[in-house]
Amino acid sequence: MKPEVLKEEGYRLMGAPFEVYNDRGYGMAEEIYQECLELELGFRGIPFAAKREIACTYKGRELKKRYLPDLEVFGSLVVELKAVTALASEHEAQLFNYLRITRRPVGYLINFGHAGNLEWKRMILSEFIASDQRP
What we know:
Blueprint: H1 7-24, H2 30-43, E1 48-50, E2 54-58, E3 61-67, E4 71-73, E5 77-82, H3 89-102, E6 106-111, E7 119-124
Parallel strand pairs: 5-6
Antiparallel strand pairs: 1-4, 2-3, 4-5, 6-7
Helix pairs in contact: 1-2
């Protein structure tokens, strides 16, 4: 699936966090925004899975460590939520790892903690890991 194909899905997705931010503002706990966003996605008929565990493997063996992205939307977008004053490089690295592990080409990092406006970033995994068997 090409990332440009997912632009329409991304546009539909992003209406929901903007609605939540406009209604709730900034400064609440991430879990509150997560629950509000799940409700808003449901109101809009947008399919999603919340906090679905993702297994990691090493040389064909499953590891004990699991990854837990906040949301998978439309079965193709990975969404990581934050409620911090500003996004940082470690937040981007977290989303990048989720993209690699899920083999999804596009992810969204959404920060409800930024004063004045919703802070967000769309990330495209530049190399599809077809030949790379790592997560």
